[in-house]
Amino acid sequence: MIHHYYWPTPNGHKTAIMLEEVEIDYKIFPIDIHNGAQFDPEFIKISPNNRVPAIVDTDGPGGQPYSVFESGAILLYLAEKTGKLYPKDVKTRYEVKQWLMFQMGNVGPMFGQNGYFQGYCPEDIPLAKERYHNVSKQIYSVLDKRLAEFTYLAGDDFSIADVATFPWTTIKQRTMHKIELDEYPNVLRWNEEVSQRPGVQRGIAMMSDDLKVGNPSEETYKNMFGSAQFKKD
Ligand SMILES: N[C@@H](CCC(=O)N[C@@H](CS)C(=O)NCC(=O)O)C(=O)O
Question: How far away, in angstroms, is 205 Cα from ligand 1 center?
Fold first, then answer.
């Protein structure tokens, strides 16, 4: 059984989709990051950077409970545990790893900063908005070129690289990123194809009533971006 420490955000959706795609038993433990639940010491034991998602596999290596944080590591863990969405052939496996790392090192962090300066930052900082908007568009161009050549990010088959990237390019997130996909027709085609998968639809639907984009209350801002993040224990 996988314990899924979760809130419906782009990074949370990665593991929600994965759990549904690989059809493994799981139980949800909601961590409301708007209310500061991510700072609970019990959660920090599992997720030292106070972020969702995280998992505990009650039947981990050696039959013992094992916890994993960082969405990319969780996707790899679940792929290796179930043998799904992760090809065996070394070359294709490295295609998956490269595009998974591209998501973890570029798509997530840069789109995240773009979203912050476009939608959450209490000050209007045009240079920061322009910088992260441009970097995000450059990343979309890289994805678009790749998807012009291949059906999925790692080649012919849907993999954990697609699971990691898709939640960041869906409509709800993009409204805050202020990027339209018309210039990136291959990303649009891929988005459409991925969004038809029943496992992806079930993952995106997980606790979707709690999904919020932009307009944080003062308390939420403090928890997600402000003083609560930086206080010393
Ligand atoms: N690199 C991490 C990033 C996770 C992350 O930023 N999660 C956000 C939600 S999308 C979060 O938990 N924010 C709460 C906080 O910053 O305290 C991963 O991929 O798991």
Answer: 19
